[in-house]
């Protein structure tokens, strides 16, 4: 069996594989053709197969090419198989032949020798396996493989010809088998020529190209359409029963924080969400990360962000004009895949690919499909790493351990997770790959009005609301100062909007997240009782609304228990046992199961190896945590009634309901449950119940090492209960950071904190809407503590009023506090104490600028940082520059304003002519304008400090343009250029 002439690079093993390849391409394919002809003719009596395949997902062009009645002629003319595809012939058998199992049946497994379906699968897979690493070590192995293959093909023909299937004559069958064996013997004994060896190599290359082409076709057609359907978000659709809303219609910029590992010169930095795929894992080496991890609390927008990426890629793939992608570099990915951590039915990569690209399954075997994908630049989005189960954990382990290395840096991952899962990332191997860690904070307060406006307008367009959008926006503007950090979460703003759409009067008393969920639950029960009352009258059972409401509450008790059990398992879909409990409860109460679960739960289709199954899901994990917290209320009430003086009731219930030991087990996944529980107890008529549970709740929070910011959230949820605040103040708060919505909680805490405890007040909202801000400043002024006050809204928007009057208590000479940092719009700086080290001011015109500059020069403050926001009316007619300045924010009117801008930058610049940062909020530059700006600044001898930044908002740039602007900024100004949204410049 020696080669007449061996081409360079062909090994002995390649030659052995070539012989098997010739066998399968010739005799294997002809065996499948026999099955096709016998089964197809029996089923259709010669009619066109095309008509029977229209609904199988294949294009007409593809069907006409491969599935018409010329298949026999095609194969006869080309026994090598180069002009047709065995996988398509296999699909032809699957869908067109008589008496075969449906697609997805176990009969099609390649190890089912007793089934014709299984033998056909074996032949298809054998061909593909030869091109992807099948080992034939020696001549003995070659002989064994040929015998096995011959036996399989013989069994295939015999089974197809049997009475069970297509009932062919014994004479015909014997003839076909004899011909097959003769041909195989010839292939095994004939010498291999140089030309056919080259042809073999070309055939393998062509096969791989065909496989990639099949996957690419899926990526350009089926996947984008699938993702557009998938890219609808709205966790409140369960309230209306209507379709969800399109993600891009309601999306508002999310705050994304880049952790310090990749930015060592900073603690952390806020980034443009659109840059999340371009952040470098190693800035020095300019290394592209393999994995981007986005961490965020429940409801922070992780799933929304994932779906926005999917939608962006889908739009790019289906756009005829190839509009620029929203997420930078997303257009470089040939393929984008999507998986959910909660999915219990996909445990390996091949299954995921077949689920996402079902029409590829009939054309490629598992190995060929995986190899084709790994040969393409691919982004896999895994949403909800914190919801992993045994199956999805197996999937991610396989991907990280096997496929990421095998892809040679072509396969990248974007992973979302909740914070408690971050510490477990090394356990699943994520840290063994170049990684970037981002934190999703939600929607910044200055964008809340924009978000609810978008959601509500879209609801009106979809017939989901008749309320006034302007009134909603005005309500959010007025209430923003007392709504708290939890309204950064898109989920909660969405639910607030739905509550407004249903009944604006229900929104007026809502400030905490527990109040929001309670109000929504009341609305759900009210509507459910109305429906049940109508049915009661219809069926003449005439139950009163009071009776029906009581039945709903009994059902709700079982639902809340099911949510707690589901949360323990780490899922959002209810287990079979929980569903059975709910079903039995409905039977006991004589209620319809679908009628009762519909208002509280979503029904979603889940893919399994045997087709689709229907699963019950809690609409969102945050809502599930609220329901889980309610599951404590009934046993808690009973416990207090039976043992009113017992001090460990909560801990006993944790052991009883969660089967966990509060002393030793990790309860961090239940942190929000216990915060909600505090909120629910605070709304009880008897306040002593909360106070009796307070020590135990705080003990649990201490054990899970709750963040300081969460303590203020807990106090807020508990309606700023003074007893709770006193307990929290004991060694929990080392620096009091007061943000929007936390002023009342801070006032409750201050009397119990150590007098020297530092205080930082950071307010994004209009100060006129912040409750009891003056009282807070008065209380802080009495304390010998370090103080920082950032009135950011007035600093950014001087038209909203001056800050001096709001700072009066802490500027008073009798104040005991040490004021270290101030941000705001000040009319005077002469009243600032000389303790101020960091200062950010606004200049509204030249006169105002000159007055403040003169006062700063004559002040005893020793400034470490000075940031100035220059308004449009400042023209730069300034006699003397500032003694020092760190960063400059310049608002501008139009594209003809560059001369003024450069004049201002130059006139304010300190003697060394260097800035740490130059920022241009409120303006959108063109590519040409940026080049001109950099040139003009350089001609004025303006420089930027090492690692300093020039931040602009720019019109859509091509990648070469962006790179050029970065280069000239570095070359002429020594600075780093960032193109970003205005919100990131402050």
TrEMBL record:
<feature type="domain" description="NACHT">
    <location>
        <begin position="290"/>
        <end position="419"/>
    </location>
</feature>
<dbReference type="Pfam" id="PF05729">
    <property type="entry name" value="NACHT"/>
</dbReference>
<dbReference type="InterPro" id="IPR027417">
    <property type="entry name" value="P-loop_NTPase"/>
</dbReference>
<dbReference type="InterPro" id="IPR007111">
    <property type="entry name" value="NACHT_NTPase"/>
</dbReference>
<protein>
    <recommendedName>
        <fullName>NACHT domain-containing protein</fullName>
    </recommendedName>
</protein>
